[in-house]
Design a protein that fits this description.
By secondary structure, the chain is an all-alpha fold. It contains eight helices and four strands. The protein has a domain at 113-319.
Amino acid sequence: MTSTFPTLPSVGPVSGPPREVPPPSGGRGPRVVSLLGSWADPAAKAAWGLLAGHVLALLFGLAGLLIAIPNSHLWADSELGVETYNFGMKYGGATHILFGAAAVFALGVLAVGLWRTALFFVAAVVLSAGSELVGTGTGWPFGNYEYTDYLGYRLLDRVPFTIPLSWFYMGLASYLLARVVVAMVGRRLGPVGKTGWTVGLGVWFVVVWDLVLDPAMAHEDLSVKFWEWHETGPYFGMPIQNYLGWAFTAALYMGLSRLLWGREADPTRYAVALPAGIYVANIVFASALSLSVGLWLPVVLAVALGVLPVLIAWRIRRTTPPTRPLVPSLGGSTWAPSGR
C-alpha cells in the first residue's frame, strides 16, 4: 500500500543565531537578575548581610554625632550609655568603613570573581594610600589638610588605615553602578568606548559622593571633626584642587584595575541594588551630617548628580527585559546576556 503523505527531506541540526522568545502575555519578559539577586549564592548572602551591618553602623554613627555627643545629659547617668559612648568614640568612625569594605568585597566576588576583586582591592588601597600620604605631606594632589584621630590607627601617623578602605569600597561600588548604566545606554559603543565611559562614570560617582561628604566632615560646627583644612577655597572653604585630586586618584586605580582584569565586568551577575545600596547609604549619611550643620546645597548636588542617576538606572534595570535572547535556536548553545 502506497502512502498518500508526501516524503519530507531529512533535516539536520538547526544552526544560526538565537531566537527571541516573546515574554508571557501581559508580562515584561524575564529579568536577568532579580531586584535582590540570588540568595543561593554564598557571596550574595555575605554581601547582603554585610551591607545590613554597614547600614546599621552608619546609623549608629549618625546617632552618636547628632544626638549622643551634643546631648550628653541623655546618657551620662547610665553605665550602659557611658560604655556605648566610649565604644562609639573609639571604634565608631572605623566600624562602618570596615563593614562597607567587607560588603563590597563580597559584592566584587559575586560580580567579577575573587581574583579580580583582589586586584581591585590592592590597586585601590595602595594607590589611594599613596595619594593620601603624599597629600598630607606635600599638599598635592588634594590640597593642604590633615586627619584627626577619630577614624582609627594612622599610617605613618598621617592617614587613618580606614581611608584607603573607603576608597576601595566606594570605588568598586561606583564602578559596578557605572557598568550597569553603560551596559544599558551604551550598546553602540565599542569595547574601548564602553570601558572609558564606565571608568569615567565611576569616577564621577566617587567625586559626587565627596561633594557632600567633605564639607560636612570638616565643618567647624560638627561635634567631631574628622579632618582639618589648612587652606581655603571656593567650595565651602575647600579648594577645587581637592576634587581634581579625587578624580585623579579614582581614575588611576579604576583604570589600572580594569586593565589588569583583561575583560569587563558582566552586569548580569549581580543585583544593581547591592552597589546602589552602598552608594545611596553613604550619600544619605553624608547628607544628614551636611544638613545638621546647615549645608543644603551639597545635598542637592549629591542627590541630583549621584542619587537620581543611580535610582533611575535601578528602576530601568528592574523593568527592562534582556536585550539579548535567553533561548537559542535548536542545536545551539544557551546564551546569557553579557551586556557588552
